[in-house]
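To: structure desk
From: M.T.
Subject: fold request, one chain
Message: Could you run this one when you get a chance? Sequence is below, nothing fancy, just the single chain.
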Amino acid sequence: MATCPDCGRYLNDPHRCKGRWRIQLRLLGWTLRSAVIASAAGGLVLFLIYGRVSLLAIGLTAAIGVIVEKALQWGQP
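Reply: Done. Structure tokens follow.
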């Protein structure tokens, strides 16, 4: 079956191309959301353990969240 050159999905009867930029915008949104959730969760855990949190620790937990999200995105068909 043929695929759309713009979005990469199958060209079947109900196909409506959303364009490549919308798909990339949605993936960027998921990535930013995972970074915020990971930094909030990591900051909360570190605050509960040590009583304070550095910006470096928050940045590292956000980076870990982004890495996990990208691994999940690449693993899906």
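Reply (cont.): The chain has a mean pLDDT of 87. Let me know if you need anything else for the meeting.
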